[in-house]
Design a protein that fits this description.
Keywords: Membrane, Transmembrane, Transmembrane helix. It holds the Pfam family DUF4233. β1 and β2 form a beta hairpin. The chain has a domain of 100 residues. By secondary structure, the chain is mainly alpha-helical. A two-stranded antiparallel sheet has the order 1-2. It has five helices and two strands. Helix content is 59%, strand content 4%.
Length: 147
Amino acid sequence: MTGPVEERPGTGAPSEGAPAQGAQTGGAPAEGGGQRRSGLRNPDKAVRGLGAGTLALEALVLLLAIQPIRVVGGDLSGAALGAIVALAVACVALAGQMKRAWAWHAGTVLQGLLLLSGLLHWSLFALGVMFALVWAYALHVRRVILG
């Protein structure tokens, strides 16, 4: 289909013949129409998924990094190992709480704790820097999508 699209009466489904939503303004939403800025069906849910996915990936990387850190980085103290496991558990728990507004702030605190755990082992600081940058990007995307 190459022509303009209009909504079929009574179905809510598009059909050919009328201009598409936002066609007059070059794709931008109409003023005062209450339309979404991002074009997503549910921007809140998309942003929550981004945050939860980021934290889940962080937990997985932390747990999978234990053995390479032990082999390449030398001694991994019990405190460092405990910090890794505790941070991974916190990431998983927080990923399930992303519906709450405070979870984004708690995620930022979690990144700071990972950076501080770099005092226990240098490789944890490196992981902290990487995930702090990823979290900063997730916060940026959240701000752009939700406004």
